[in-house]
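Here is a tokenized protein:
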Amino acid sequence: EWPGGLDTLRRSGFQVIALSPDPGAATLATALTGRRVALLLGAEGPGLTEEAMAAADLRARIPMSAGTDSLNVATAAAMAFYERVRAS
């Protein structure tokens, strides 16, 4: 049940990271430092709810060119997974 399942992840050693276009959020490269990571991704456009953002341990963003504020969720997930593998 949401968001209780996140506590289960945390007890299993996961850091919960919400992807956000917020320029004040950490970049993925700096956020993906935990040994075990669970990513929260929202739909293109509305993104994650404020409740989902608040439930995460950290907010992270994918650096983008000026004027770009969102990516398709599949593209964002692929970039995040790539960055996770690259950072390990």
